[in-house]
Amino acid sequence: MLEAMTVKDIQRIATEVADSWADVNWVASTDSTNTQLLASGTPGSVLIADEQTAGKGRMGREWVSPAGSILALSVLVDAPTADNLGLASLAAGLAVTDVVPEAELKWPNDALLSGKKFAGILSEADIAGDTRRVVVGIGINVYWRAEDLPVAGATSLNLEGIQINFDEFTIDLLRALATRLEQWQTGDEKLLEDYRAVCSTIGKTVRLERHGDDVEGTVDDVTAAGEILIDGTAYSAGDVTHLRPAN
């Protein structure tokens, strides 16, 4: 039987990351950590949940978050401007590879092990008047049985031979998130330099699926705005429904 993964000592986690995150909370279950932080959080807030009953992925897709098998958390930060908001998601993806160095990133922010997805990220912005906030949600599959994985092409840390201490891993991830999101906020060029180094999509021939308009070509680069550059043309993540290897 697999051991349920959960926070053991939220106070210790909060203390260890207090220099970066002022308000760290844990709940057994919630609809969506992103939704809750956008509704009531302040910049510097963190919400960790054992279970999300309405977890969200890109394009409104469901993110399955059963209790005991996933690390689900969201952080709320100030956005420096209304531009380049998409880079926050890339920064979060890079933070995942900081704590799981065996991983690589599929543009924009799918974290892969052995070519299979084990983590997903969703950033949502709250831009109104003088308010500029971004919530970044991360779901990491930490402990699953292979037969219970929600979709084909998914994996988890334990299935890839990676064992973690849940609290220590959470602390490390929050520290990495603080570093990478600060790089985004300050425009540090090292963010994209490091992202390009772990992005396995660069150099691949891909089919980019948009709403009724598919594009095939070779990925040249990821731009300073976090867009994918295919045969000299840039596409933003918000315009893309799927990115697949070209047939």
Description:
The chain is of the alpha+beta class. It folds into 2 domains: 8-196, BirA Bifunctional Protein, domain 2 (2-Layer Sandwich); 202-240. It has helices at residues 10-16, 33-40, 87-99, 166-186, 190-198; strands at 23-30, 45-52, 70-78, 104-106, 110-113, 116-128, 131-141, 205-210, 213-222, 228-230, 233-235, 242-245. Strand 6 (116-128) and strand 7 form a beta hairpin. The chain is globular, with a radius of gyration of 17 Å. The mean pLDDT is 91.
Write the layout of secondary structure elements.
Layout: H1 10-16, E1 23-30, H2 33-40, E2 45-52, E3 70-78, H3 87-99, E4 104-106, E5 110-113, E6 116-128, E7 131-141, H4 166-186, H5 190-198, E8 205-210, E9 213-222, E10 228-230, E11 233-235, E12 242-245
Parallel strand pairs: 1-2
Antiparallel strand pairs: 2-3, 3-7, 4-5, 5-6, 6-7, 8-9, 8-12, 9-10, 10-11
Helix pairs in contact: 1-4, 3-4, 3-5
Short structural description:
It is built from five helices and twelve strands. It is of the alpha+beta class. The chain folds into two domains: 8-196, 2-Layer Sandwich (BirA Bifunctional Protein, domain 2), CATH 3.30.930.10; 202-240.
